[in-house]
Design brief:
The complex is a heterotetramer of chains A (184), B (265), C (358) and D (86). Chain A has 6 helices and 6 strands. Chain A is an alpha/beta fold and 184 residues long. Chain A has one domain (2-182): Pyruvate-ferredoxin oxidoreductase, PFOR, domain III (Pyruvate-ferredoxin Oxidoreductase, domain 3, 3-Layer(aba) Sandwich), CATH 3.40.920.10. In chain A, strands 2-3-1-4-5-6 form a 6-stranded mixed β-sheet, sandwiched between helices. Chain B is built from 11 helices and 8 strands. Chain B has helices at 33-47, 65-68, 81-91, 103-109, 111-119, 160-163, 169-174, 190-209, 223-226, 230-244, 254-264, and strands spanning 10-14, 53-57, 72-75, 96-102, 125-130, 179-186, 213-219, 248-252. In chain B, strands 3-2-4-5-7-6-8 form a 7-stranded mixed β-sheet, sandwiched between helices. Chain C is 42% helix and 20% strand. In chain C, the strands form 3 sheets. Chain C has a 7-stranded mixed β-sheet with strand order 3-2-4-5-7-6-13, sandwiched between helices. In chain C, strands 10-12-11-14-15-16 form a 6-stranded mixed β-sheet, sandwiched between helices. The longest helix of chain C is centred in the middle third of the chain and has 21 residues, at 214-234. The chains are: A alpha/beta (184), B alpha/beta (265), C alpha/beta (358), D alpha+beta (86). The interface between B and D is large, with 38 and 34 residues.
Chain lengths: 184, 265, 358, 86
Amino acid sequence: MESSIVIAGFGGQGVLFAGKMLAYAGMENGLHVTWIPSYGPEMRGGTANCTVVISDRPIGAPIVSQPEIVIALNHPSFEKYVDKVRPGGLIVVNSSLVTEKCERDDVEAVYIPANLIAEAFDQPKLLNMAAVGAMLARRPIVSLETFRQALTAHLPATKTELLDVNMLILQRGYDAAVPLSLGV
Amino acid sequence: MLDTLPLENERLVYARPRTLASRYTHYCPGCTHGTAHRLIAEVLDELGLQDETILVASVGCSVFAYDYFDVDACEAAHGRAPAMATGIKRYHPDKIVFTYQGDGDLASIGAAEIIHVANRGENITTIFINNAIYGMTGGQMAPTSLIGQKTTSSPFGRDTQLAGYPMHMAELLAGIPGTAYSVRRSLHDARHVIQAKKAIKTAFEAQMAGIGFSIVELLSTCPTNWGMTPGDSCDWVRDQMVPVYPLGDFKVADELQQARGRSKR
Amino acid sequence: MAQQLLKGNNAFAEAAIRAGCDAYFGYPITPQTELLEHMSARMIELGRVFLQAESEVAAINMVYGAAAAGAKVMTSSSSPGISLMQEGYSYIAGSEVPVVIIDIMRGGPGLGNIQPSQSDYFQVTKSAGHGDFHPIVLAPATVQEAIDLTVLAFDLAQQYRTLVFVVADGAIGQMMEPAELPPMRPLPARAPDWALTGAKGRSPNLVNSLYLGADSLETLNLRLQDKLHAIESAELRYETIDVDDADLVIVAFGTAARVAKTAMQTLADEGIRVGLLRPITLWPFPTEALYDLSRSGKSFLVVEMNAGQMLLDVKAAVGADAPVSFFGRMGGAIPMPEEIVAAAHNALAQPAFAWAGA
Amino acid sequence: MATGRIVVDVERCKGCDLCRDACPPDVLRHADFLNAKGYRPIILLDPKHKCTGCALCATVCPDGCITVFRDIPQPKEKIHHGAAIA
């Protein structure tokens, strides 16, 4: 089992941090993980993305041309990645900023108003947690609980007062996307 | 072995300093590189620093300086002696580290390194030999060559339109906050040699006191490449170089003046 | 010590510190800057020497000075900075002081870009400054290996009093992976006998690379060559996977080798017998291992993130009668597994020197 | 009566003459022989005992080849003479 996730958005949307938390969660589940960012000037004010690979075997390529999962937090990222999702994969779309729909029928799309969810908690920058929550609802490559543990352990010391609200937004994103058949 | 012991009713007034190695130098007759070496060695003797000192030699006529001092030494790439000295001094802050550099090395290819070593207030000493020419490579124009000076690479005389102006390194470095001591002296006669030695001593004392970068610029001769006798070369320094490169103290840090005041009391 | 999720650049830096690096001089350049930043905090905390130099030229000469003074010293940079430091490498080699250099490679030529590349293969293995010498060149492919090879680099530098490079493309510098750091080594109590420490109680030491006489310089060179031969026979390192049964052997290092491993899974599923030879030391190079494989009738596919630099060493190793194909990406592009699969198909279909460019 | 003298390391001397230019009593001359490097070294030629041991020659010597001695005034002798007179 090998999962690849691309998280893409504007700089400042917590793209790299969300990816790192997924990688931590994978590692703490005993899995092999890699996390690699796009780096340099394009991160400053422009778009940022990172690729996380989580696998039960040693990981070869840390980047993928067709990720299994894409989290597109803004319009340019949606445009860039919607056609790259592997058939059978998932795209999580931040419907607060992306008005288009995924027109492919070979991938699953979930629309989550990440900005609105985060703003409802007065923490607009934490939209990344809403999107990751939604992703974990549809593809539990790590459990929500493992992700929570990673967040608790690795939230920077300067941000610990935001731990609870991170958790709440994560949960709200999860709840908003969880398939009804699971009956949560 | 030379008999350099005083007779019964004599006292020794001057003897070759211990820190100066016994090896014969390759310098041309009358070249004041030798004088500068001797003065440094005398100062290191007087301050008792021979066993504590590390020399960083540079590229130019003085490339073999490491052979002429009985101290630990290394040889830097052209212009990089201040950087190499930085590496040594940072690792051995309790040792005395000095660079010995000519004008091509310090003012041209190594201009960046010398400015930054000063700007960091690196606690090292630089002895800077300004003879207005590239000596080792055969008398090409240096950044310190005088306006109108004919060299093998400025055959019509240094033209400021073509090659800019003589670089005044002692003044330039004096303007940098990390510099504790920046002075210019000359080696063209006995009186000036004595003054040069005092400045070299002060520069090393600045390093011992740990108050920043110290540099002594020494106007020096190059009889061979200037095409003059040693005596005429000294006159040329006095008559041509000193008016362009005024002798004097361009920076003496307050702490250094205080430290010197204390040591005199 | 437990596994941590570590970024490559930070892993290099922390591994160096734990290996006993007690002096660092560097200059910021992407994509290695986190390495310098890590050193700027940790070295100062530990009371060791850290200095941000005014240029790479100054940095390498500070490194040279500290090495001469007996430090276990390191610098790090990326391709354009590595080019600028070449002056210092040669002096370091000529005066036989131990130095470790970490090169997080980016795309060139010129200012190029900051994306991952393997564009420095030639300059680190072939031309690291003027004169006849080779640095030892170590090429990790994972963050764990970045740590292990950095520690090894310090040991080899000290053992042979030589220049050791650890080269990784920007992807390894920037990626995070779980890895385990070694325990902190104690620093040596005193400097080596040859170091510049002030000549108290002994005759003066000299660190120098100037030998004006032809005979004396040749004598130095012959001694350096002897040392290099000793390194060649003792320090060669490479990994092989499934080469014995393979029809096609992929030769790749660093990130290109990682991607090749992913491609090999696809190829294996297709029933294609493919193996991998991954040089871990780029110098010394596994020439004999490649030669032996070529004698058993295998084809080769060299995959690099450049225009074919290691390719020349592979061709030299296997000789003119062994088919060697090449697939490379340049400009900071990382080859994709699918591209390597296609290149492998091509290499097998047209085994005689089929060239698949970027 | 000379009050000083110098010893020149003639093998080290390059005959540059800077010491001659510096010498107030002008008691330095070139030797009539060449040293191993082919230079005609400086020697002290002081028949009229003019050297004062001022050390200006050594001060300007680029090659550190001059050693300088100065006579020690002999107060003991004076006491002796005085004693004799008394």
